[in-house]
Design a protein that fits this description.
Shape: globular
Oligomer: single chain
Strand content: over 45%
Order of helices and strands: EEEEHEEE
Strand order of the largest sheet: 1-6-3-4
């Protein structure tokens, strides 16, 4: 499990890209199916599993300067506007799987 907190101090909503990469790392020992959970305090704000090659996300990858992901990968991607405050991201393996994964957070602006 990976858990990170980040505070957003601006007054306005910010568009955030969160990626949980396991298979996309192309190395042994990675999570084969990462899942992202986003919390604000105890409240689950959003969660995501496979990104599924969604064209919608590719535009955000480019805007963030992030590398592309294989369209059939099980990597997890989440894009959403967040209000100011402290958030916690949990990156876990589906069904309790353990392994290596990379958690990426990008602030895409307003």
């Amino acid at each position: 499990d990976v858990e990170r907190s980040r505070g957003l101090g601006d007054v306005y909503k910010r568009q955030i890209l969160i990626r949980g990469i396991g298979p996309g790392l192309d190395m042994d020992g990675t999570l084969s199916d990462p899942v992202i959970y986003l919390y604000k305090g105890e409240e689950l704000v959003a969660w995501t599993d496979d990104w599924g090659g969604n064209v919608f996300y590719k535009d955000f990858f480019e805007k963030a300067g992030a590398t592309g992901l294989a369209e059939d990968s099980k990597d997890a991607v989440l894009v959403l506007p967040l209000l100011p405050g402290a958030y916690t991201v949990h990156l876990v393996g589906k069904q309790g799987e353990e392994g290596i994964a990379l958690l990426e957070l990008y602030d895409l602006g307003d």
